[in-house]
Amino acid sequence: LLAFSLPQALNGFVLVVTSEGLIFYCSHTIQDYLGFHQTDVMHQSVFQLIHPEDQQEFRQNLHWALSPPHAPEGEPCSQGKRGLGSSAVTYKPDQLPPENSAFLERSFVCRFRCLLDNSSGFLAFNLHGRLKFLYGQNKRSKDGSPLPPQLALFAISTPLQPPSILEIRTKNIIFRTKHKLDFTPLACDAKGKIVLGYTEAELRMCGTGYQFIHAADMLYCAENHVRMMKTGESGLTVFRLLTKDNRWKWVQANARLVYKNGKPEYIIATQRPLVDEEGGEHLRKRSVHLPFTFATGEGLLYQTTHTLQGFPDSFQSKEKKSKSKKTCHSNGGHSQKDNIDPNSLLGAITRQDEAMY
């Protein structure tokens, strides 16, 4: 309990980085400040999170004498997983100052990549800690002999700019979700589970995340999804999510691509619940040039000829309805719904329950 509550009490997150730049440990509170989940950054190169202009200073602070050997640009990122890169130095404990030496204390400023910041994409943090021996690694040298424990940076990272009272208040209601590139849900933090009512297993069972989006918001969200795949960020998107008790919850979201080795790997969406009045105001301001019309939740998507099963078809006359029934019977009882791709927007709507609306 103490291990869980102590990081929560800190204005920041705990970070342990090995001499070669691998994140050995970070507290779960890193998600509150950078937007990355704890499991997504552990055992990854810390230099993937650091601003390029600050990487050399961070590399220096990993060395006990602040003078690491020169490493080619980007080498810690590419070699970090394989073991000790050339930028790491192997020492025997008797070659280093004692652990309580002031030479091993560290305090410096570094900019970290932040999924929650809408301006530069980086936030400045003050790292305060010291170099300590990291035991239990069982690493071996090239000749197979065991290596002694090596120094690692144990530090507390706190924002250089203290959060405002408003930020502290809103931080308590913001939740984050993780998705595949097609927006299929992968994970949801504890606050999101409270707001929406689902478990992570329930979110992952329903196919693409569009099954949880209101029909009147699907194309609007899809356009911002396409924008994010092109630019890396969706921009602020206001839409309705379906809660477990079949109610619609307005949220304001911003989704960002997370890259690994230069390629997009997954999506992190940061979402803030809105009251219905605020969501309705955003809906009224939304562009009316999208190629669909909505009244009570049913929609005509891109002038499609498919009818939405279970929804009242307010776009077709009774004569058209009778023709569609004849077509259905002439096809041997197979409706056009059978040919709909379940991963398409139209497929997402047909899989929704009419009772939701």
From TrEMBL:
<dbReference type="InterPro" id="IPR013655">
    <property type="entry name" value="PAS_fold_3"/>
</dbReference>
<dbReference type="InterPro" id="IPR001610">
    <property type="entry name" value="PAC"/>
</dbReference>
<keyword id="KW-0238">DNA-binding</keyword>
<dbReference type="InterPro" id="IPR035965">
    <property type="entry name" value="PAS-like_dom_sf"/>
</dbReference>
<dbReference type="GO" id="GO:0004879">
    <property type="term" value="F:nuclear receptor activity"/>
</dbReference>
<dbReference type="InterPro" id="IPR039091">
    <property type="entry name" value="AHR/AHRR"/>
</dbReference>
<dbReference type="Pfam" id="PF08447">
    <property type="entry name" value="PAS_3"/>
</dbReference>
<keyword id="KW-0539">Nucleus</keyword>
<dbReference type="GO" id="GO:0006805">
    <property type="term" value="P:xenobiotic metabolic process"/>
</dbReference>
<feature type="region of interest" description="Disordered">
    <location>
        <begin position="312"/>
        <end position="357"/>
    </location>
</feature>
<feature type="domain" description="PAS">
    <location>
        <begin position="8"/>
        <end position="69"/>
    </location>
</feature>
<keyword id="KW-0804">Transcription</keyword>
<keyword id="KW-0805">Transcription regulation</keyword>
<dbReference type="GO" id="GO:0000976">
    <property type="term" value="F:transcription cis-regulatory region binding"/>
</dbReference>
<dbReference type="InterPro" id="IPR000014">
    <property type="entry name" value="PAS"/>
</dbReference>
<feature type="region of interest" description="Disordered">
    <location>
        <begin position="69"/>
        <end position="91"/>
    </location>
</feature>
<dbReference type="GO" id="GO:0005634">
    <property type="term" value="C:nucleus"/>
</dbReference>
<dbReference type="GO" id="GO:0034751">
    <property type="term" value="C:aryl hydrocarbon receptor complex"/>
</dbReference>
<dbReference type="InterPro" id="IPR013767">
    <property type="entry name" value="PAS_fold"/>
</dbReference>
<dbReference type="Pfam" id="PF00989">
    <property type="entry name" value="PAS"/>
</dbReference>
<protein>
    <submittedName>
        <fullName>AHR protein</fullName>
    </submittedName>
</protein>
<keyword id="KW-0010">Activator</keyword>
